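sorry for the late reply, my laptop died twice this morning and i had to redo everyting from scratch. anyway the thing you sent over, i finally got around to it. pasting the sequence first so we're on the same page, its 342 residues, then the predicted structure underneath. double check i copied it right bc i was rushing
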Amino acid sequence: MKALVKEKAEPGLWLMDVPEPAVGPGDVLIKVLRTGICGTDLHIRSWDGWAQQAIRTPLVIGHEFVGEVVDTGRDVADIKAGDLVSGEGHLVCGKCRNCLAGRRHLCRATVGLGVGRDGAFAEYVALPASNVWVHRVPVDLDVAAIFDPFGNAVHTALSFPLVNEDVLITGAGPIGLMAAAVAKHAGARHVVVTDVSEERLELARKIGAHLALDVSRTSIADGQRELGLREGFDVGLEMSGNPAALREMIANMTHGGKIAMLGLPAEEFPVDWSRIVTSMITLKGIYGREMYETWYAMTVLLEGGLDLAPVITGRYGYRDFEAAFADAASGTGGKVILDWTA
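ok and here's the structure:
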């Protein structure tokens, strides 16, 4: 089968013929239809410091996908050939304290699809049945392909109550954009998104943000004044991993404000801990999705009319992966999709 492979420990990706994955007793074999390009895939392609430590070559990359089940192992009961499925990309041990307590997203032995084991940028991928999400209601294939990052957005946005709250989102990348759509759909009073890319800020406006701020020109405090906010934001969703963004978020939160952090910084940096303490601000780190509460929430949000179409800005056949990755790396668009049927 064809697959995108990190064949060598150097920058680049290679479209190669590789064997189809084996299917164990509890596994599901899936014919991949669409995949989404993630920031993780960009790191692996560029072979940066994180990738050099995390990846062993050769490796089939990719973890955002939708596909059709073509085969199941003998112990799989509730999934059948022909089912349309997406996959939870975090494979957990099932034996640790958190797994046994039903908190699988907190497993310390998590292995990432397309990072710690061969992934989904291929014509076929195999996953344990427990990691397969069957789409029981109709869903657009492009949207189903990005259920993994959509889950990151939902997990982050719904960490705290949002009804009638004023929400600040720093970072208008694809996950920040989806979080903005979720926050508005969930009943936030104001949703403010910040970035320095005018193209992405325009996407934030299309997705329904009440205010999209270019923070290279306009401060968050100015945004507060424009909206008539007197005490700051109630909820912050930090999606950028940028030190200045988090510092500005902390400075503009109301007393008792709550911040969920998904953005992953490249290195350690200082923040105003005195402000956090005296303003009684809650900080919560987010990684991945709650298994599988977040997946239920995603499905229900889409059934309820949440529209993610504006977030998807690039579509390519898998043979045009170089152009697709260049598009995704430009930092000006939303999600980029690879079609594995083209």
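The mean pLDDT is 96.
thats about all i looked at so far, will dig more tmrw
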